[in-house]
Amino acid sequence: MRRYLAVRLGGALVSLALVVGLGFLLFRVIPGDPVVTMTRGRPVTAGQLAELRARLGVDEPLGEQFADYVAAAARGDLGTSYVYGRPVLDLVGERLWPTVLLVGTSTVLAAVLGLWLGVRGAWRHGSRFDRVSTGVALAQWAMPTFWLGMLLSMATGDLFPSGGMRYPGTPPDFVSQAVDVAHHMVLPCLTLVAVVYAQYLLVMRTSLLEQAHAEYLTTARAKGLREDLVRRRHAVPNALLPAVTLVFLHLGLVVSGAITVETVFSWPGLGLLTYEALAGPDLPLLQGAFVVLAGAVVATNLLADVCLRLLDPRVRAV
């Protein structure tokens, strides 16, 4: 187990190092000059533009910029935002909780709904329930997220808020604030669940169909176990293993937020912050957000590997 953890941890560190390098290079190819964008509409001279470039460090050779970026990242400093003039880590920290609340809740609901429908559909393979549930899930999965969000917003009218996280005049007590946030969260959460749950349904359905005619299930039936017990005690635990990997992958993506949904509903999370940074382009903010988001995915993948080794004896035998 120690050797397995050491290998997986080493691989995660290598992946994180590649993410840091990629995060720097990726956003250097974005078209647009951040200095020109920041001074747009203002009477500035060429000398003032050059001074601002020097102050931001974008006039240095690419190699020097990369070396400064890596050295600062090693110290835990992801830079200062061009637009906000604040440390990137502070901005990311402020937007982290709204994103975790929205996307985390959506992920849990989508996983529960998708796994339940996948189990029911596979156990009734070919039935009307199976065909309808799979068809509806695939249709919603194919919908662009931003388009579905706008449709839901128009369909519900004034029933649910279509923007923001809370009303300014909400009383400061916990219950009032929680109800207000939950009210604002209905439409973006419903949009994410409607699009994402199909992945859990399809993975669980396929995995359970592969187990349906296994010999150990025939043995369980021969012992006189009811179909419900055969499914719950024997088939589902074995079929859950691929779904565990998918759940952990989406948990890593929880931190990344949903750029389109957060933008459509003006949800103040990391997705909206990334969208605003792209308009600059605010290079330090984009780089910092990318490193944090990719780091979360790397960490959850490492956790998934450890959990699969604990859950599946076949992995321990390798």
Mean pLDDT figure: 81
The run of helices and strands is HHHHHHHHHHHHHH
Distance between the termini: 11 Å
Strand content: under 5%
Number of helices: 14
According to DSSP, the number of beta strands is 0
Rg measurement, Å = 24 Å
Shape: globular
Uncertain runs are none
Main sheet summary: none
Protein structure class? mainly alpha
**Estimated helix fraction:** over 70%
Description:
The chain is mostly helical and 318 residues long. 75% of the residues lie in helices and 0% in strands. It has 14 helices and no strands. α5 packs parallel to α13 (283-311) and α6 crosses α8. The termini are close together.
List keywords for this structure.
Peptide/nickel transport system permease protein, cell membrane, mainly alpha, globular, membrane, 318 residues
Brief characterization of the structure:
It is a multi-pass membrane protein. This protein is mainly α and 318 residues long. Helices cover 75% and strands 0% of the residues.
How does the SSE layout of this entry go?
Layout lengths: L1 H25 L7 H5 L7 H11 L5 H13 L13 H36 L4 H14 L3 H12 L17 H38 L3 H8 L4 H28 L4 H6 L5 H9 L4 H29 L1 H5 L1
Pfam family, one: BPD_transp_1_N
Main location: membrane
InterPro entries: BPD_transp_1_N, MetI-like, MetI-like_sf
